DNA sequence: ACTGCATCGAATATAGATACTTGGTATAAA
DNA sequence: TTTATACCAAGTATCTATATTCGATGCAGT
């Protein structure tokens, strides 16, 4: 049988996924030194694959390498928060304008589908499950909108900024998802966004998108200050 | 003496620079398999540092990794050429609009300085030197314009697309720099661009920038077709 | 001609050797 | 007495070399 269930994934690639997840989830603090001995123990891997994974994360700016002095988790700061969200909002605005120019009927349908799935979340057992489900569907909704631009490379660049922002966004998620009031506001913003998009009002839609994406900034600033991360 | 002149750069980082250079310069063909034995021999390094360098290049999409089957140079295609240049033109347009909103007097001065340096190239000994000098100054000119957006992360994303496009751009360079006619046209486009930027006409400037950045596409398409790279 | 087996080559991982940095302590000078 | 510097020891990153595993190719046998 050639249908082997184990495609034998390269250990470096697995190490990459696990490390990325642990960094964005805050298992490793910003600025923290990533000791090879610790990582070896935690993931049960040799140094080689770990160095490979770390090299990739350096390229994605989630980890910084200091020559001959090992690796550290990239630091977080209020300045980076502001710039990262601004850059992302501007880029997403551009992508949305292009999507409105270039998107077809299937694109519109996909947006409506994802918006519906997002707005109707029920039957969740635990708060953590709510967070996971809402987050997944929220991402899917925004990705559906962006995909209309039909440019793989713009979408790739969008992904890259998204990965960098994820650590900050994670701080915001807990504050938002567990507040019925905040959740309701998001619901309204999304509905308004969909409406303007379907009317193909590019300029207005881009403005709304930029504004929508900037709303978490004050909240995250507050959380970071409170926790002394700034 | 603590002033050691050798900061003892990690071999992985050097390997990264050399490999990147050799890939963008076409020493390794698109799609070509990167044999560890070959690389070891060529750069005089062990496998470890090479794997590190390759991992970073994978994150930058210049190399693709096939699990358990080593690494290959990322393929080139007409489809990627078109999308890459489109994405870059759109992004650069956005950045220019922001730069015109946000740039100060020092920014304007820097643009004028770089434009002047670019337009007055003389005293070159060889054609290859002309290519190098012109390319360096051309990049500096465009970077000076972009830097006005004051967003490190947008500039970082711009760099990333630029690195990906460099292989294609290199094909175009030889066709343009060695033609006095093409060079003169570029000179005029740059002058017109500077004029509109200094007048702070954001919309018009962005349009011109997008158009300016798309001009190499037909030429590169022609070269690729001629050489059977498509 | 096709299938199964063996051999070869390449990628991957681990383990060990080397060289660097860092923190502490002791000594000397102010 | 205090401060600064130099030296020493422990820990850590980095590299090279070796072993293992996986895939591919060629040959032989049916």
From TrEMBL, chains A, B:
This is DNA-binding transcriptional regulator CsiR. The keyword Transferase does not apply. Pfam families: FCD, GntR. One of its GO terms (molecular function) is DNA binding. Residues 9-76 form the HTH gntR-type domain. It comes from Billgrantia zhangzhouensis. Keywords: DNA-binding, Transcription, Transcription regulation. Transmembrane segments: none annotated. SUPFAM superfamilies: GntR ligand-binding domain-like, Winged helix' DNA-binding domain. Gene3D superfamilies: GntR ligand-binding domain-like, Winged helix-like DNA-binding domain superfamily/Winged helix DNA-binding domain.
